[in-house]
TrEMBL record:
It comes from the Bacteria. The chain crosses the membrane at residues 61-82, 122-140. Keywords: Membrane, Transmembrane, Transmembrane helix. Residues 1-37 are annotated as: Disordered. It comes from Actinokineospora spheciospongiae. This is YggT family protein.
Length: 159
């Protein structure tokens, strides 16, 4: 099998081999600058990073739990307004769970309609759960966060 000869018109865009310049390499130590200059690698360890990570994890857990309680209460409101079958397993679970997290607001309002009473009682309980979560998160961030003095430690290694 023979290959055709190279066509100079097709390869004109490529520079000749003599014009290729290799990438610039770093000069040897001491060639430019003081000969006793050392290469130092620094690793910074922030003492507050772990504390902030813990605070974020705790506040996320508080937000998740209080949000879950509020969602269950809203689900009970929706199931009551839609007249769901109370003998259904899911509806019974939501009813029991919402009764446990209603913060004693069950029967607080006594309007003429059971649907309106559920809306007011569980709606208020859901709002209170969200406020409780926000207040707990505020207090955690306020009192557990590191103060204004920041300490950063360095570890140096010389090659």
């Amino acid at each position: 099998m023979s290959y055709p000869e190279s066509d100079p018109e097709r390869t004109r865009a490529f520079p000749p081999q003599e014009q290729y310049v290799a990438p610039r390499q770093q000069p040897p130590p001491g060639q430019y600058g003081p000969p006793d200059e050392e290469v130092v690698h620094e690793r910074v360890r922030d003492t507050h990073a772990q504390r902030w990570r813990t605070i974020r994890m705790i506040t996320s857990a508080v937000t998740f739990i209080t949000g879950l309680f509020a969602v269950v209460l809203v689900a009970q409101i929706i199931l009551t307004l839609a007249e769901a079958n109370p003998d259904n397993g899911f509806a019974g679970f939501i009813s029991d769970f919402s009764g446990a997290v209603s913060l004693g607001f069950d029967g607080l309002f006594t309007p003429g309609s059971q649907k309106l009473a559920t809306l007011l009682d569980y709606g208020l309980a859901a709002i209170v759960w969200l406020l409780i979560g926000a207040a707990i998160n505020f207090l955690i961030r306020r009192f557990a966060s590191p103060g204004p003095q920041r300490e950063v430690r360095y570890r140096r290694s010389v090659e």
